[in-house]
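Supplementary Methods S3. Complex input for the nicotinamide-adenine-dinucleotide-bound model.
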Amino acid sequence: MNILLTGGLGFIGSHTAVVLAEQGYQVVLVDNLCNSEIETHANLELITGKEMPFHELDIRHTTALVRILKEYQVDAVIHFAGLKSVAESSTEPLKYYDNNVGGTISLLEAMKACDIYHFIFSSSATVYGVPQYLPYDEDHPLVPMNTYGKTKLQAEEILQDVARSDSRWSIAALRYFNPAGAHESGLIGELPKGVPNNLMPYVCQVASGKLPYLNIFGDDYDTKDGTGERDYIHVMDLAEGHVAALRFIEKNIGFYPINLGTGISCSVYELINAFEKSANCTIVKKVQSRRSGDLPIYFACADKAKDLLAWHAKRDLQSMCDSSWKFQANLAKNL
Ligand code: NAD
Ligand code: UDP
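Predicted complex, serialized as structure tokens:
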């Protein structure tokens, strides 16, 4: 099968490309490089030993997408391309709606023009908003608290309508929890441009000396140790979840929102402790006030993924920290 990955040079797309290629799928990548580096392409071919055609392209360019879908006789699309900064989405809402919602519409138009109806969408746990109960299951109300989350929810609503309109569509919207970690080779990983917003890449940069200390955004939450708790999931587990979802949509029509998480919640301090073991270092930290818009705690109910996809996360927090640190240390060596 031939699979097109939009945003294929990004963090989650690149890891999924490796797992797909290893499982015998033909992978084609498109990316406009707005948040990734071209070197990742060579590293993907190095890891897999396979050729992986890459096109530098913005997914809002529908006619160019149609050409690529036809050229490679694509059977299914996994749509990672998107902007993901919660903070930037509140200052640049039009950029986010245009890219995340407009980009998705452009891609669906191109697929329809080529009679391709198998689609996997990168959604997010941010679609749920303030927890009315935990763990979040897929029936939890969808009330996102920020513009980024609203773009993901709007895209999901479009996908649901599209699936209702024509029974040939088979669509999974995978709601990721907190991806972390890297491929075991240390050749690909998370490459944030500028100062990272997320915890794991920030900790990596403190450990490597690029940043002086870690801000702890609040230690007075009603959580196990006062810091925020999240459901961190290894990016390789997430990548394998996409392959499982691909197998599922090959056989099932309709629209399926599915959580990809571990069901385990981990505090900021727990993550730092595990990371310090991996990197054999001490992370300098400063407790600050809470970050605006942060939730104290959330984590996934992972039952639906287990039932429908026969998938569950296998790797633990230590493995996320080990591989993140290996990637960060490699980056520092190559500078
Ligand atoms: P990423 O930024 O590393 O990867 C996204 C890729 O898409 C980048 O390589 C970027 O250059 C590309 N891109 C963006 N807009 C594009 C466009 N218009 N045309 C072509 N390429 C474009 O992010 P990621 O962490 O790999 O996330 C992948 C997807 O998963 C995103 O849609 C994101 O919103 C979603 N997601 C991520 C997380 C997370 O914490 N990483 C959590 C939930 C959901
Ligand atoms: N966090 C922190 N310092 C940082 C980045 C994050 O203390 O520099 C905390 C944040 O408050 C939250 C957790 O780490 O409790 C995960 O934050 P991240 O931004 O990685 O994920 P999200 O909040 O989007 O789920």
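Residues 6-7, 9-13, 31-36, 58-60, 80-84, 99, 103, 122, 124, 176, 178-179 surround nicotinamide-adenine-dinucleotide (ligand 1) (CB under 6 Å). The first strand starts at residue 2 and ends at 6.
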